């Protein structure tokens, strides 16, 4: 089983739609959680951290369920510019050190 | 610059040659990570440096791969006797101790022909 699992997609949605991505992680001792965005042939960039209480940044809402080891990202009113791969990232103490473990990403394509 | 800087941005090398990739982390960031991303795939952890502690090399795929970092500054990733399967984007990230997020460089695209 992968440490961080995501549905690879692609998710093809029309402009203005609401779309949700889910992610599960296997290490219950994981401490920090993030969503990164990666555009084609570019480096990953931090979209938002994910907090236990849930957090919102404009059209983006992230939630964490520690009991179920599940993270979500909701994008409202999708824009063409939201088209990218969204990476679920978990930071935890494994094999003696802290590491960022990346999911393989979920591809989103917003259609005009 | 304020971000993580990697060089070269692109490298084409012949099979069997050695290559050296460089990463300049954000000033003051104590943690430095190397990842590999093959075409269409996710990020694969290679190695982690934290200050002056012994690095975590558990992700290095073979003994052809090695990395060094001097203190909290520049890191170099060396691949000896390159193989075609080494072709990938090699990403470096750094992180301060004060916040948990990591910040990535633009990567080095390595092509072994």
Give a verbal description of the structure.
The complex is a heterodimer of chains A (112) and B (113). Chain A has 112 residues and is mainly beta. In chain A, 0% of the residues lie in helices and 58% in strands. Chain A has no helices and eleven strands. Chain A has strands spanning 4-6, 11-14, 19-25, 32-38, 45-50, 55-57, 60-65, 70-75, 84-94, 97-102, 106-111. In chain A, the strands form two sheets. In chain A, strands 2, 4, 5, 9, 10 and 11 form a six-stranded mixed beta sheet that branches. Chain A is globular. With 113 residues, chain B is mainly beta. Chain B is built from no helices and ten strands. The mean pLDDT of chain B is 93.
Biggest chain pair contact, residues each?
Answer: A-B, 22 and 21 residues
Topology pattern of chain A, helix = H, strand = E: EEEEEEEEEEE
Number of strand elements of chain B: 10
Which oligomerization state do the chains in this entry correspond to? heterodimer
- Radius of gyration computed on alpha carbons of chain B: 13 Å
| Low-confidence regions of chain A | none
**Strand portion of chain B:** over 45%
Q: What is the chain-wise order of helices and strands of chain B?
A: EEEEEEEEEE
Q: How many β-strand stretches of chain A?
A: 11
Low-confidence spans of chain B: none
General shape of chain B: globular
Q: How many helices of chain B does DSSP assign?
A: 0
Structure classification of chain A: mainly beta
């Amino acid at each position: 089983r992968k440490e961080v699992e995501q549905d690879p997609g692609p998710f093809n949605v029309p402009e203005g739609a609401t779309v949700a991505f889910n992610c599960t992680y296997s290490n219950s001792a994981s401490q920090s959680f993030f969503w990164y965005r990666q555009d084609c042939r570019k480096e990953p960039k931090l979209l938002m951290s994910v907090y236990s209480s849930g957090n919102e940044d404009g059209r983006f809402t992230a939630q964490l369920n520690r009991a179920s080891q599940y993270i979500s990202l909701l994008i409202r009113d999708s824009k063409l510019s939201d088209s990218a791969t969204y990476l679920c990232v978990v930071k935890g103490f494994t094999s003696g050190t802290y590491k960022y473990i990346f999911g393989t990403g979920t591809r989103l394509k917003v259609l005009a | 610059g304020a971000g993580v800087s990697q060089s070269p941005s692109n490298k084409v090398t012949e099979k069997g040659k050695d290559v050296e990739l460089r990463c300049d982390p954000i000033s003051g960031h104590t943690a430095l990570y190397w990842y590999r991303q093959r075409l269409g795939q996710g990020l694969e952890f290679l190695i982690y440096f934290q200050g002056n502690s012994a690095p975590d090399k558990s992700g290095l795929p073979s003994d052809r791969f090695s990395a060094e970092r001097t203190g909290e500054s520049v890191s170099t990733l060396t691949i000896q006797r390159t193989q075609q399967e080494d072709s990938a984007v090699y990403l470096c990230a750094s992180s301060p101790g004060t916040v948990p997020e990591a910040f990535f460089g633009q990567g080095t695209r390595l092509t072994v022909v």
